[in-house]
Every structure is written in structure tokens, then in C-alpha cells.
Design goal:
Number of helices of chain B: 17
Chains: A mainly alpha (294), B mainly alpha (372), C alpha/beta (251)
Shape of chain B: globular
Oligomer: heterotrimer
Distance between the termini of chain B: 53 Å
Helix content of chain A: over 70%
Strand order of the largest sheet of chain B: 1-2
Shape of chain A: globular
Structural class of chain B: mainly alpha
Strand content of chain B: under 5%
Strand order of the largest sheet of chain A: 1-2
């Protein structure tokens, strides 16, 4: 194995890790706010990718511009979903039932995508699809850089929102201690709705970014949800920085393992990490103190 | 008087139960003779296999309240285990079937050991991950499993014609279902089952009362995996052709959950009833709409409705309805409740009176000023 | 209400028990010995670590350091069911029962299982049912045995929880705020029950805020503040201890 190949994989791993981090951050938001495991997150990811593809096919305009529609749309859908569906569940069984509910939503989305767009594999062809630039000897596709750039910018925006806005403060307060947040006058229901919307918005961004670089088909979301779930468990459920770190580590790991093992087997790293986490540290590796700081 | 009428209603209920049970069993067992054509009969086999799977799932889901979306892993392993034992080791069909079940049960021990360390959300995540791993492994390891080209399972009864084959397997599945239900019923009325239900209600509390919750969960998880694998193996013998995408499909796992939940996870026949409804609907959709994705949408919507509006299933919902429209029964209940309340109040005031006169007792008071 | 002069036999004891949550020391180097055969009360201001201490002792939380022993055996870090089997029963702060099981089942659950064979026995074993009914009668809610536990009143749930604890036949019973949220009549009834059960030889450790109950009921009081005991002794002494007043009034 030569050094440049290794370096190439490392760079690709970082780029992939960025996207994982963004998506895992969304998942963590739902869990942190409402103890909801959002299985449909990756289904919305694929939905956004399909919308970007469809937008490009119909208008011929760069699919990235579909973001201006999908991000607000997904935000609204997220708010509605929380207010109309998730909030109806009984608090006692919320976590379990929310898994089933969002699972049902994922199935419905997958089915509708197959219904409307058929099961055919789709891919966007762009002028810059095949281009790549050289970074210290590693060839990196432009679309991958764009994807990473989008993910990094969104994560940064999320960080700023969480850290410096009033809404972010209420959100964090709600995550840390819902009853206490209510006591200081935070309308936790509304905050939870917006938090849900924010989470779904990350799926819109991630999906659009994904559409530039990937072949999409309706059942693709299952390939995403497994790794993402593994990431949030390894990162410690509810910790955004934990999820981001785990995403980076596992993304890089997956990319590096692809050289000796091939793409399919490299995916097992997520599941190995998942089971190892449960055996050694069920509360996750990066949760706890970090979770409280963000 | 209350007791007498109680006993009467109990025995009436018992008779009703026996009659309904006999009628259902008879209807089920004669199904092959009145099924219109082999296609309908094969649909019946599919529905029965669903009933076996969701009843098996309900060992974990119903008793402990842990929802596993990944039981398709055990289903697929049972199916592939049976097929591989027949083709690679030349075992006879039903020996292979049973050994595969045992093998999967053994495999479930370390899996459960890891998965049951966490509760709620993490457990569901692990269960999903399990199916995805199995899918990955069985697709990639194609030298051994046949990969996406599929794996042909030798027929156990090579001389049989198709309708006869379906009929035989209909009865085999029915027998397996009966054994599974019997086992669930035995656990349900045992102390072990009571401990499991306590876990479902409040795991910490159960543990504090001296129930070794972790071991309980693990045992029932393994039992559940065993029966699910037997269901999978039987399916392999019947269907004769395996593909990882279908055997380790997350959809199969979600069917098990949907069926059990729809029927009612706390009821013995809940999953069976759910399987009859959902299984029949699925077969119908496949017949009417062919290969479209419509059955996904239907499954998704139905699951969503069940989760939102009747998380306890249709059996309890139905019983509530019956209760409401049976004036006699409800009035007896109300009377008893009122009576009990009255008796309780008079008793507690009587006791309070007694206490006040006992010198060693504290003055009844809720003043908690000392606390501040 | 006076302590015997003979040196007390060791029941439950902790040595340097500590547990912190994210930098906050909930239990801090607590060395406590409870008196066998007596009603011990554990009191202290809100947030003084009583419940965390409870949870460490009963195995619900693993302590960071220190040890717990019961009758001379080290039980530190054992799982809760093993501690329960060692003879320590406990109730929870906000009464916890199994809501969708009947009152009788709630008590039956706490039977002592001996070996695999008893597990497969039917749950409705007659001896066990009689025993469970006995405890329900004892706490005065036997007429409710067929109701779902979720349907009975809060006070009745508290009594039900106690009946469940008794069913496991513990030698030491730890109650977390038995008088919390119940009416005065019921407080009296619970007090009497504790007295009676104590007279039969069961040791009690009671966390309680209701001072009148504590003072009249307990033989030995231990005062917690900031995660450790600051004073202990008979109620009359503790009541006038300046350190206790300081802890409560925050002087």
C-alpha cells in the first residue's frame, strides 16, 4: 500500500466524515430534545436528494439551488411532524413508539418515492461532475469538496445557532433539563418543534449534497440509517460534539478500510464500533461531560 | 351475591372461549380443503408463517416491552442455516431445520448479551443494525451463501405436487404455530412471565424487588430467536429459494412488529390476529398492485395509525368497546368500584380515628415547615 | 425510644462512599452505620444526597469509590436484585408500582425465586397467593386485589408498594419518603405499620422530610448535608444539634 493512496483515502474519509457529522447532528437534535430516535431521518435525506434531482431534471438549473426550497420546506415539515405526530405519543412509551412511528414514516416515504419516481437508479450529471482537483497529491472530486463545504458550513451555522442565539439557548436548556426550562419560562413545546425542524433541515442539506455525488434509489436510506445510528450511539446519545467526533473517526475508518477490505466489508466498521461500544461503554464514548458543555 | 354472579360470568366466559377457540381452530385446519386454488392456499401458508414469526417476536416485545425491529436477522439465519446444513453437510431436511434453530438460539446469546445491556432507543438501534450486518455479510460472502444469485433449498418432499406441497406445509406451519403459542402461554402464566411483565412495566422497580432482570431478558430473547429461526427454516423448506435481500429484509422485521402491535402485544392471540389481518392485506396488495411499492406505503401508514391511535392493539380496543356496550357488565363494575371506594374511605377514617387516640403515634399533620 | 446500651450489631454500613455527577459531588465520602433492629431515619435538606446515597446502597447506581457492606458482607457494586436477595428491600421516592398489573400481581411479583424449577411453576401458586393476600391485608388494601394498580389512589399505591417490598421478606427495609404526598390519616397508618414491622424484628432506614414523623418514629437519626453525614444520634439530641440547625437554616 503506498502512501499517496493512503493519503487519498484519508482525505476522502474526512470529506465523508463531514457529511456523516452533519446528519448525525440532526439525529442527535431529535434525540436530545424529545428522546426520539428518528429512523426517517435518512429517508428524508433521500427524499431531498430526489427533489434535487427532479428539480435539476425539470429546470436544468444547478441542483444546489433547490436548497432554497427544500430547507424551509423540510423545516416546516419537521415542525409539523413534531406538533402533529410525535407530540401525540404517550410520554411513558415515547422512545419506543417514536421509533416505530418514524419507521412508519420512512417506509411511507420509500414507498412513495418508488411509486412516483420508480425504483430506477438516478444520478445527476453536471458540468463539473467529473472534475477533480489535487490536494497535496490526492485527487479529490469537486463535488465531494462541495458536499463537505456544505456540511461544514451547516454544522458551523448549527453551532452558532445553538451557542449564540436565544433560540439556541432555549434549545440547549430544553435538552439538558426540560422541567427546569419550563420553570424559567421557555415554551418547550414550541422549542421542541423548531428543534425538530432544524434537524430535518440538516437532512435537506445533506440530501442535496448527496445528490451531486451519488446514485440514488428509494431504498438507499437503509444504507445510511445503520451507520448514522451507530454513530450517535458511539458518540453518546444526545451529544452533538460526540456525534461529530464519532462521525469523523468512523468516516475516516471506513474510508481507510476500503483499501484492504473493499467497500462492502468496510461498512462493517460501524457495526463493530456499535457492538464494541455497547460492551465497553453503553453510555457512548464521547457523551457525558462533553454533552453538557455544548 | 357478587361472588356468585362472578363465578357465573367466569364460567360463561370460559365456555365462550372454548367455543370460539374450537371454531377458529376448525376454520384454520380445514382451510386447505376450502381454499379455492393453490394460489390462495400458498397465500394461506404465507399468512401462517407471518403468524409464527410475529408470535415468536412477541416473546420479547410482548413480555418485556423491548421492541426489536431486527428479528428478520433470526428469520434469515434460520432460513440460511437450514439451507446450508442441507446443502453443505447433507443433513436431512428436518434435522437441519431443528439444528439451525438451535444454532441461531446459541448465536442469540452473545447478541442479546450486548443488545440487552441498553434499554429503549439503543436497543432498537442495535436490532436494526443486526439485520443490516447480516444482509451485508450474506450478500458479500457469496462463495458460501450464494450471495445475490440466491440459494436453492432442496425440497424435503421431492415427489409432491405443488398443491399437495402447500397443503403439507400449511399443516407444518400450523403445528409450529401451535407449539409457539403454547410456549408463550406457558411463560405468560408462570412466575418467569410475571417477572418479565414487571420488566415491561418498570425495569428498575422489578430489579429492586429481586428479579434478575438481565438474565430474564436474555432467556426470553433467546427463546424468541429460537422460534423465529424455526419459522425462517420452515419458510426456506417451503419456498425453496433464498435471497439475502428478502431474508434479511428490514421489512420482514417490521411486519412482525406491526402484526403483534395491531393485534395487541399483551394478548396470546394478538400477533396471530394481526398476522391474519396484515398478512391477508399484504397478499391482496401484491395480487392487485403487483410489484409496485404500494405495499410499503400501506404498511407504513397502517403502522403509523396503530402507533398513534391504538398502541395497545385491537383486541384491548375491541374489549373496551364491548365493555361499553354491555350495560350489565359495566354497571356491575361501577357498583363494585363505588362500593370499594366507600369501604376504603370509611376504613381509613376509622383507622385514622384509632391512630389519633394511640399515644405513640404522631399527630396527623402535613406541616413540613421543619423541612425549610 | 431510647437506644439500648449494648453495642449495636452491624446491619448496613458504608465506608467513604462517594458518587459524583459531572463534577457535582452528590455523595461525598459518606461513612454511615445503621443500627440493627431499629428504625433509622436519614434526614437532610433537599439536595443533600440522600436519594443518591440510597441508590448507591441498593445498587441502582454504581458508586465512584467507597464500600457498602450488609451484615459484614461486602455488597459494593452488586446488581440491585442481588442486594434485594441479600435481604434489603426498598421503596422509591415517587412511589413506583407496575401500573398495568393487578394489585395482587404487583405483590406476587416479589416472590423469592429459588432455582429454575420454581420459575416454571404457575404464577398463581396458592401458597404464594395466600402470602401476598396476607401482606395486602396487613397494609389494608386486600379488597382491591383485582383492580389494576394504575386505577387505585396514590395513597393506596404507596401501601401497595410497601406490600410488594414485604413480600420479598427483607430484613432491612429502606423507604424513600414514605409520607411524601399522602394525607395525614395515611401518614399515621404508615407510621404504625413501620412500628409494628419493626417490633417484629425488621430494621428500617427511612428518608423523610416530615419532621414530626421522623422524631416520633425513629430510634436513630442521621443527618446528611452536602453528601455526607454531619450528625447522628437519638432524635431528641439531633433536634438540638447546632450543626443540624445550620444545615437546615443555611446560617
Amino acid at each position: 500500500m503506498d502512501g499517496s493512496l493512503l493519503f487519498q483515502s484519508l482525505v476522502l474519509g474526512i470529506l465523508l466524515g463531514g457529511l456523516y457529522a452533519l446528519l448525525a447532528a440532526g439525529l442527535t437534535l431529535y434525540f436530545g430534545i424529545m428522546r426520539v430516535v428518528m429512523i426517517a431521518h435518512s429517508a428524508f435525506l433521500i427524499l431531498a436528494a430526489y427533489l434535487a434531482w427532479w428539480f435539476h431534471r425539470e429546470t436544468g438549473i444547478d441542483p444546489l439551488l433547490s436548497l432554497f426550497v427544500t430547507v424551509p420546506l423540510f423545516f416546516a415539515v419537521g415542525v409539523l411532524m413534531q406538533r402533529l405526530l410525535v407530540a401525540r405519543l404517550r410520554p411513558v412509551t415515547l422512545t419506543m413508539m417514536s421509533v416505530l412511528l418514524t419507521f412508519a414514516i420512512a417506509l411511507t416515504i420509500e414507498g412513495l418515492l418508488g411509486f412516483v419516481f420508480s425504483g430506477t437508479q438516478r444520478r445527476i450529471q453536471l458540468g463539473y461532475s467529473g472534475e477533480s482537483i489535487e490536494v497535496f497529491g490526492a485527487h479529490v472530486a469537486v463535488v465531494k469538496l462541495i458536499t463537505f463545504g456544505l456540511a461544514a458550513a451547516s454544522l458551523a451555522a448549527l453551532y452558532v445557532i445553538m451557542k449564540y442565539t436565544k433560540f439556541g439557548q432555549s434549545l440547549r436548556a430544553t435538552i439538558q433539563h426540560k422541567e427546569a426550562a419550563q420553570l424559567v419560562g421557555i415554551k418547550t413545546d414550541r422549542v421542541a418543534g423548531y428543534g425538530f425542524g432544524l434537524g430535518l433541515a440538516t437532512a435537506a442539506i445533506g440530501g442535496t449534497a448527496l445528490s451531486l455525488d451519488a446514485t440514488i434509489y428509494p431504498s438507499l436510506h437503509w444504507h445510511w440509517i445503520g451507520p448514522l445510528m451507530a454513530i450517535i450511539v458511539v458518540g453518546g446519545l444526545g451529544s452533538i460534539p460526540g456525534a461529530a467526533i464519532a462521525a469523523m473517526v468512523l468516516g475516516i475508518g471506513q474510508s481507510l478500510l476500503q483499501i484492504p477490505m473493499g467497500t462492502t466489508w468496510a461498512q462493517t466498521i460501524f457495526y463493530v464500533a456499535l457492538f464494541a461500544t455497547l460492551m465497553l461503554r453503553p453510555q457512548g464514548f464521547f457523551g457525558g461531560r462533553l454533552a453538557q458543555r455544548f | 351475591m357478587l361472588n356468585a354472579s362472578d363465578r357465573l360470568s367466569v364460567s360463561k366466559a370460559f365456555v365462550a372461549k372454548v367455543v370460539v377457540f374450537a371454531a377458529c381452530a376448525a376454520a384454520l385446519l380445514t382451510f386447505p380443503s376450502w381454499a379455492a386454488n393453490p394460489y390462495i392456499l400458498s397465500a394461506g401458508v404465507v399468512v401462517l408463517s407471518y403468524a409464527v414469526l410475529s408470535t415468536s417476536w412477541n416473546f420479547v416485545g410482548g413480555f418485556t416491552g423491548y421492541i426489536s425491529l431486527g428479528h428478520a436477522a433470526f428469520f434469515g439465519l434460520g432460513a440460511y442455516g437450514t439451507a446450508l446444513l442441507i446443502t453443505k453437510l447433507d443433513l436431512s431436511s428436518f434435522v437441519a431445520w431443528f439444528l439451525a434453530g438451535v444454532g441461531v438460539a446459541l448465536f442469540a446469546i452473545p447478541v442479546g448479551w450486548a443488545a440487552l445491556r441498553v434499554r429503549g432507543a439503543s436497543f432498537v438501534i442495535v436490532s436494526i443494525a443486526l439485520v443490516l450486518i447480516m444482509l451485508l455479510v450474506f450478500q458479500s460472502w457469496s462463495d458460501f451463501t450464494g450471495g445475490s444469485n440466491g440459494l436453492v433449498v432442496p425440497r424435503p418432499f421431492p415427489d409432491m405436487l405443488r398443491p399437495e406441497h402447500h397443503e403439507t406445509f400449511f399443516y407444518l406451519f400450523a403445528a409450529l404455530l401451535a407449539v409457539t403459542l403454547l410456549c408463550w402461554w406457558l411463560i405468560d402464566r408462570s412466575r418467569f412471565g410475571m417477572g418479565l411483565k414487571a420488566i415491561r412495566e418498570d425495569e428498575d422497580k422489578a430489579e429492586a424487588l429481586g428479579i434478575p432482570t438481565y438474565s430474564y431478558k436474555l432467556v426470553v430473547y433467546v427463546v424468541s430467536a429460537f422460534f423465529t429461526a424455526l419459522g425462517g427454516g420452515m419458510y426456506a423448506l417451503w419456498f425453496g429459494d433464498l435471497d439475502p435481500v428478502f431474508q434479511f429484509s428490514i421489512l420482514i422485521g417490521s411486519y412482525m412488529v406491526l402484526m403483534a402491535l395491531l393485534g395487541g402485544v399483551r394478548q396470546l392471540y394478538g400477533p396471530l390476529l394481526g398476522a391474519l389481518i396484515v398478512g391477508t392485506a399484504l397478499e391482496y396488495f401484491k395480487l392487485e398492485f403487483g410489484d409496485t411499492q404500494f405495499h410499503l406505503v400501506a404498511t407504513g401508514l397502517l403502522l403509523g395509525i396503530v402507533v398513534l391511535f391504538m398502541p395497545d392493539g385491537i383486541i384491548p380496543a375491541g374489549m373496551k368497546l364491548v365493555d361499553r356496550f354491555t350495560p350489565e357488565r359495566s354497571s356491575i363494575r361501577e357498583m363494585t368500584a363505588a362500593e370499594l371506594l366507600e369501604r376504603d374511605q370509611s376504613e381509613s377514617s376509622e383507622r385514622a380515628g384509632r391512630h389519633a387516640s394511640t399515644p405513640s403515634d404522631p399527630e396527623p399533620s402535613t406541616t413540613e415547615k421543619a423541612k425549610r | 425510644m431510647t437506644l439500648t446500651d449494648a453495642p449495636p450489631r452491624e446491619s448496613l454500613a458504608t465506608v467513604s462512599l462517594s458518587k459524583s455527577f459531572g463534577g457535582v459531588k452528590a455523595v461525598d465520602d459518606a461513612t454511615v452505620t445503621f443500627v440493627d433492629g431499629k428504625v433509622n431515619a436519614l434526614i437532610g435538606p433537599n439536595g443533600s444526597g440522600k436519594t443518591t446515597f440510597f441508590n448507591c446502597v441498593t445498587g441502582m447506581i454504581k458508586p465512584d469509590s467507597g464500600s457498602v457492606s450488609y451484615r459484614g458482607n461486602d455488597v459494593t457494586g452488586r446488581s440491585p436484585h442481588r442486594i434485594a436477595r441479600a435481604g434489603i428491600g426498598r421503596s422509591f421516592q415517587l412511589c413506583r408500582i407496575f401500573p398495568r398489573m393487578t394489585v395482587l400481581e404487583n405483590v406476587l411479583v416479589a416472590h423469592r425465586t429459588d432455582g429454575l424449577r420454581s420459575l416454571l411453576k404457575g404464577a398463581r401458586n396458592d401458597d404464594e397467593i395466600e402470602r401476598a393476600r396476607g401482606y395486602l391485608r396487613r397494609v389494608g388494601i386486600d379488597h382491591l386485589e383485582r383492580s389494576e394498580a394504575a386505577d387505585i389512589s396514590y395513597g393506596q399505591q404507596k401501601l401497595l408498594e410497601l406490600a410488594g417490598v414485604l413480600m420479598a421478606e427483607p430484613d432491612l427495609i429502606m423507604l424513600d419518603e414514605p409520607a411524601g404526598g399522602v394525607n395525614p390519616a395515611l401518614i399515621g397508618r404508615i407510621g404504625t405499620l413501620i412500628r409494628e414491622l419493626n417490633a417484629e424484628g425488621r430494621t428500617f432506614v427511612v428518608v423523610e422530610h416530615n419532621m414530626e414523623m421522623v422524631m416520633s418514629l425513629s430510634d436513630h437519626v442521621i443527618v446528611f448535608d452536602r453528601g455526607r453525614p454531619i450528625a447522628e444520634g437519638p432524635p431528641s439530641e439531633v433536634q438540638t444539634d447546632p450543626r443540624v440547625l445550620e444545615a437546615y437554616l443555611g446560617v
